[in-house]
Design brief:
By secondary structure, this protein is mainly alpha-helical. Helix content is about 65%, strand content about 0%.
Length: about 170
């Protein structure tokens, strides 16, 4: 009986983490829509890597990182978790997002182009790994939440595009 109860608690925590991943990764998109061209300073300062390509690209902005941290830290206490967990999730998600952009530039993908897996997994797995010990997550939790994030992100992208939240249907 206790093992089943513990798994239920982890399932609830997994759902909370999935929601936090959506907040962390969605806040920059919503901030871009609300603020339009304001505060869109690229994280890489417009610099190029030694290969002549942008380090991250113009779509990765300080505004996005700021709003990811802010929104996730605000939402987290509503789920019964400390705001610092939200900031940790958002920070790690943004590091994962920057890594995926860096990899896509090296692989010669255009800014904002689609790369299934590269676009979703680092921004989901990094926060989960960072929170693993803090929240007593198992490897099953990490894998399940990452796969759920990937599936949901791919499933809802078209809908978000139709609602004019995203600029592209992916």
């Amino acid at each position: 009986m206790p093992a089943k109860r513990a798994r239920t608690v982890n399932l609830l925590l997994d759902i909370k983490l999935l929601i936090l991943l959506f907040v962390a990764n969605g806040a920059p998109v919503i901030a871009k829509d609300i603020l339009r061209g304001r505060f869109q300073h690229p994280v890489d300062g417009g610099r190029e890597f030694f290969d002549g390509r942008p380090v991250f690209g113009h779509s990765k902005t300080m505004r996005g990182i700021f709003f990811s941290l802010l929104a996730t830290a605000i939402v987290t206490p509503l789920m019964g978790l400390n705001w610092a967990v939200g900031a940790l999730v958002a920070g790690a998600a943004m590091v994962g997002d920057l890594l995926s952009s860096f990899l896509k530039r090296r692989l010669k993908f255009q800014t904002s182009s689609r790369a299934v897996g590269i676009d979703q997994l680092p921004e989901a797995i990094f926060p989960l790994l960072v929170c693993m010990k803090l929240l007593a997550l198992s490897w099953v939790d990490v894998g399940a939440v990452a796969v759920a994030f990937l599936a949901a992100e791919l499933s809802f992208s078209g809908l978000l595009y139709k609602w004019h939240i995203r600029d592209r249907p992916y």
